[in-house]
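Ticket #4471: structure export looks truncated?
Reporter: QA, pipeline team
Priority: medium

Steps to reproduce: submit the single chain below to the structure queue and open the exported record.
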Amino acid sequence: MTPIFRRMAKHPRLDLHVAYCSLRGAEAGHDPEFDTEVKWDVPLLDGYEWTHVPNKGSGDEAFGGLNNPGIEKLIREGNFDAVACYTGYARKSFWIARKAAKKARAAFLFGADATSLDARDGSVWKKWFKRAAWPLIFRMADQVIVPSSGTRDLMRSLGIAEERITLTPYSVDNDWWMAQAASVDRAAARRERGLGDGERAILFCAKLQPWKRPMDLLRAYAMARLENSRLLFAGEGPQKAELAAEAERLGIADQVDFLGFVNQLALPVLYKVVDLMVLPSAYEPFAVV
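Actual output as written to the record:
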C-alpha cells in the first residue's frame, strides 16, 4: 500500500492520514506466517502523514489480536469524509473503526481479496458461514474495495450493488523494481549465488505454507529429473523442515537450496539470476511477488 499512500498524499484534492494498528514489518517483529522475525529493508513510512495507534490486543491472529481503542478518538476528532479500513472484519479494531465512522457520519470503506467462499483449510462450516454472513457484512460498506475482477464477481454474487464496488488493483512501484533490476550484473550475481554456466535456476518465492504448495513443486522437480539445474526456495514458514526432509528422501538435496527469508532489496537480484519462477499456490487472490 505504501506506493498508493505516497501518490494519494501528493494529490491536491486529498488530505490523507494513515492510522497504523501495528507497525509489524516497518519495525522488527515476529511474523507468524513467515515464522520468523521480519523487518522490511525499504522505507515504508515516509512520503505521507501517519499515526501509530497503540494496540491493546495480543498482536496475534485472533479477533482480539488487534484492539486499538484510540481509533475511535482519531476518527471522531479527524473530521474525515471517509474511512478506509484494511484490518478485516475478523479483528476487533475493524468494528471500532466502523462504529466511530458511523458516529462521525464518515463514509466507511473496506473490502476483501477472496475470489470464492471456499476456506483455505477446506472447512465446510466456514464456507457456509461466509455464505450467510458476508452479504450482511459487506452491505455495511459504503464502498467495497476489491483488488481483482474475481473478487468483484464474488461481491456481485453476494448481492452487493455494482455502484458500491470499487476495483482498486494492488500496486507495485515498477520504476523502483526496473531500476534495481537494471543495476544487476546477471553473470556476476549468478556466480555469487553459486550457479554454474548453463545451470538452470528455478525459483519459489513465498511463505513455506501448505496452501502455497511448495511440496508439490519439490516433488514435481524431482519427477522432472532436470540435469544441470537448481531449485531455490526463498522464504520461511512452518513447512521448511518437512521440505528439507523430503528433498533428502527424494535424493535431490544437493540440487535444492533453502535461502530463508529474502528481504526487498535482495529480491531484484534474485529475480534477475533465475530462469523460471513458479507460483503453485492453491489460493492466490492477487499475487504480488
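Status: closed, not a bug. The export was complete when the record was re-opened. Leaving a note from the reviewer for reference: The mean pLDDT is 93.
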